[in-house]
Design a protein that fits this description.
InterPro entries: CNF-like_PLA2_Inhibitor, LY6_UPA_recep-like, Snake_toxin-like_sf
Helix content: 10-25%
Number of helices: 2
Subcellular location: Secreted
CATH architecture of the largest domain: Ribbon
Keywords: Disulfide bond, Secreted, Signal
CATH superfamily of the largest domain: CD59
Pfam families: UPAR_LY6
Main location: secreted
Strand content: 35-45%
Largest sheet: 8 strands, antiparallel
Order of helices and strands: HEEEEEEEEEEEHE
CATH class of the largest domain: Mainly Beta
Length: 201
């Protein structure tokens, strides 16, 4: 009897991990699920859409994971240049049932200085950007295009706190950027160049 109970208990422990399921694709409200491997105790949905340097790219990913950090990475500037990435994490059977966003987040009433130039000195202070969604910080940064026949570019615009934290870390981010450098963030309606108003990540 004890051996039987032990086997039942072991089956429950193993099945709760091995038979955990997450969606791996969702289209028009219908999803296809997959069984997760041992150790993959979380589900993830990851939506990316960006237009940087006249290159519009959209990616969607669902699946199982053992390492998931949620985040709302968003940046908007002039000339319809933007970056959006939202990562959802959850623990539960088929809990990653989020659909990919169909459009840009709505304007939130905040504004920031806007610029796309080879240097900040060439930026016009009169140009502004309307912020979207959770973008509540102003940002300025330089994007370095290592390995490409492209000069560094200076950007000013609106950003979420997660994007500011990423930019200030000055690291490469997937295949989207080679490197962001000289990033500064401040609250909206205050020029990013005011060092005393910088927002800490």
């Amino acid at each position: 009897m004890k051996a039987f109970l032990s086997m039942c208990f072991l089956f429950v422990l193993v099945s709760s991990d091995v038979w955990h399921q997450c969606y791996r694709h969702i289209y028009r409200g219908r999803g296809v699920s997959e069984f997760c491997s041992i150790g993959e105790d979380s589900c993830i949905s990851n939506f990316t859409r960006f237009n940087l340097d006249d290159m519009i790219i959209k990616t969607e990913r669902w699946g199982c994971t053992s390492d998931c950090t949620p985040g709302d990475y968003s940046f908007t500037t002039l000339e319809d240049i933007y970056f959006r990435r939202r990562i959802h994490c959850c623990q539960g059977n088929k809990c990653n049932n989020q659909s990919a966003p169909g459009s840009d987040p709505p304007y939130n009433g905040l504004v920031c200085p806007g610029c796309i130039s080879s240097s900040f000195e060439d930026c016009q202070d009169s140009e502004t950007v309307r912020c979207r969604g959770e973008e509540n910080l102003c940002i300025e940064f330089v994007m370095a295009y290592y390995g490409f026949n492209h000069s560094d570019m200076a950007f000013k615009g609106c950003a979420t706190r997660d994007f500011c934290t990423l930019a200030r870390a000055s690291v490469a981010y997937d295949y989207i950027f080679d490197k962001i450098k000289q990033a500064q963030c401040c609250h909206t309606a205050e020029p990013p160049t005011l060092k005393s108003k910088e927002v800490q990540p």
